[in-house]
Structures are given as structure tokens and as C-alpha cells.
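Researcher: Next sequence.
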Amino acid sequence: MKTKKIKVKAIIEKASDGGYGIYLPDVPGYVGIGYSEEDAKKDLREAIDLVVEDCRERGIPDDINGGAVEFDYRYDLSGFLKRFDIFNVSALAKTIGINSGLMRQYKAGKTHISEARKQQIETRIHTLADELSKVKF
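Model: Next structure:
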């Protein structure tokens, strides 16, 4: 019988070496790293597969549903701004209505961002995406 996949939140962030890191906030200890976002996703999957295989060999349960997981990828702000580097951080901050210096600190991962602020930024980016989708040339 095939195990039903569970959905696991996976946060994509800018790594300190300039690449990408992915972690699972609800399942600590699993990470993926890579120079590209795709490399980090592949590394995360390989890490999970290795743990599941090791647990099977040792006859102990794993904590990740036998590897039957589907990732709900989300970005932290530093990962988003790295992935979508078309955005000028100062102009984006102005559009969203926050201080550009603060936005640069968020981008660098130097300042904690509250849930309310994350929601404000996400909502405004979605509004901007809706506006952009209506542009015609």
C-alpha cells in the first residue's frame, strides 16, 4: 500500500554564502543547500531520502512520513528578493510603504520581520502582480 503524501512547509532563504537554503520549520533538522534554488530543493530531497533509508535499515520509524512528502515552498523575504532580483529594493519599499533602509536590512537577513509586516509585504506584492498582469503593449 502506498503511503499518502503529507504537505510540509519549506522555507526558501538566501544562504550566507550567496546561494540558497531551505529548511522545514515544522520538522527540524532537515535542510537543503545549493548555489541555485533547484540545487537546494534537490539537496533537501536527498537529505530526506537518506534519513528515511537509514531509519528503514535500522528498523526505526522516521519523522518524515517515509519520505512521502509534498513541499509547500515559501520564501522568506531574503530568499524572495534573491530569487526575484528584478526588484529594486528601495523602489519596492516605497511601493509597499515601508522604509527602504529597513527593507535592505530584511533583504540581508539582519533584522527580524514580524508576521504582520510579512503579511503587509506579501499582500502588496500580490497586488503589484495583479496590476502587472493587466499591462498590455
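Model: The beta strands are 6-14, 20-23, 31-34, 69-75. The CA atoms of residues 7 and 132 lie 30 Å apart.
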